[in-house]
Specification:
Layout: E1 7-12, E2 15-20, H1 31-45, E3 52-57, E4 61-63, H2 68-72, H3 79-98, E5 104-108, E6 111-113, H4 117-122, E7 125-129, E8 133-135, H5 149-156, H6 159-168, E9 172-173, H7 174-179, E10 185-187, H8 192-204, H9 208-221, H10 226-244, H11 247-257
Parallel strand pairs: 2-3, 3-5, 4-6, 5-7, 6-8, 7-10
Antiparallel strand pairs: 1-2, 8-9
Helix pairs in contact: 1-3, 5-6, 9-10
The structure holds acetyl coenzyme *A.
């Protein structure tokens, strides 16, 4: 994107690869980076060329968390600037990504520290290099996992694991991140881009309206009672029908029932699966 200093976007075959682009600082997140990421994601959400967004880091790091110098020390005693920077930081890392209209993938290529857990968890999917290094280091700086980090950790992980990682700040790799279900999968670093591309292609093959409605529905029902969820999902289903005229469902059923050209699941049963 033109004129951006700390964010780089590459577009191709429907995918926007969004790089936090301060590799010399391990992609630590400065106020400028937060403002630029906020603007870049807003623009890509309505860009007709883009059908999936991958958030990643330039060089050897996903992100080393908040910039300790520019985000913390230099904003100390400047409440107005600190507020603006914190608002932009929370907006792109959580509000935008968690509610994004398009599929999102976090591709974790190296260090993922502190405040970077927000964008990691906000994305629909996360794929990590096996040797990526994660740490909630806040405790070691004498602060708490702020923004929404502590909250989103309990959203993504079990209580014991969330507490362990927040209280110890211990580092763990991509394989352990899979075991914790913090990421969907970990692959050798050389295979990271290829695997992420394959996942993006799968997500882009879905009906975009159904994809969007499904992810919002899954996220919203988590905090609802069964009764509320019945009501909400019924209303959402109706909204989707209104928006699309039921096109995808009608076509799919015609292909399955009449034309016999489509099966969503391979009907053969392989032993051991
Ligand atoms: N804030 C500001 N600058 C940073 C940060 C950061 N979070 N992380 C790295 N940098 C800078 C370093 O100061 C260094 O700058 P310099 O070249 O001008 O001296 C440069 O990035 C490279 O860092 P190194 O430490 O030399 O790189 P290395 O690969 O050895 O280690 C690592 C990388 C592990 C990420 C290390 O830099 C580190 O521990 N950083 C702090 C990470 C952290 O705790 N972040 C959480 C902040 S709190 C929060 O997010 C709420």
């Amino acid at each position: 994107m033109d004129g951006m200093k700390t964010v780089r976007v590459e577009k191709g075959e429907g995918i926007a690869w969004v790089f936090l682009n301060r590799p010399e600082k391990r992609n630590a997140m400065s106020p400028t980076l937060h403002f630029e990421m906020d603007a870049a994601l807003a623009q890509l959400e309505t860009d007709p060329e883009v059908r999936c967004v991958v958030v990643t880091g330039a060089g050897e790091s996903f992100s080393a968390g908040q910039d300790l110098k520019e985000f913390f020390r230099e904003l100390d005693g400047k409440p107005a600037e600190a507020k603006r920077a914190a608002e932009a930081a929370n907006r792109w890392r959580w509000d935008r990504l968690y509610n994004y209209d398009k599929p999102t993938i976090a591709m974790v290529n190296g260090f993922c520290v502190g405040g970077a857990f927000m964008q990691l968890i906000a994305c629909d999917f996360a794929v990590a290099a096996e040797d990526a290094k994660f740490s909630l280091s806040e405790i070691n700086w004498g602060i708490i996992p702020g923004g929404l980090v502590a909250r989103v950790m309990t959203e993504a992980l079990g209580y014991r694991d969330a507490l362990d990682l927040c209280l110890t700040g211990r580092a763990f790799d991509g394989r352990e991140a899979v075991r914790l279900r913090l990421v969907n999968e970990a692959v050798p670093k050389e295979a990271l881009r290829e695997r992420t591309t394959a996942l993006a292609q799968l997500l882009m093959s879905k009906d975009p309206e159904a994809y969007r409605a499904t992810k919002i529905a899954v996220r919203r029902v988590r905090a609802m009672s069964f009764e509320q969820a019945y009501d909400y999902l019924g209303a959402k289903m109706e909204e989707l029908r209104q928006r699309t005229g039921g096109r995808a469902q009608r076509e799919g059923i015609a292909q399955f029932v009449d034309q016999k050209t489509y099966k969503p699941i391979d009907g053969s049963f392989a032993h051991g699966q």
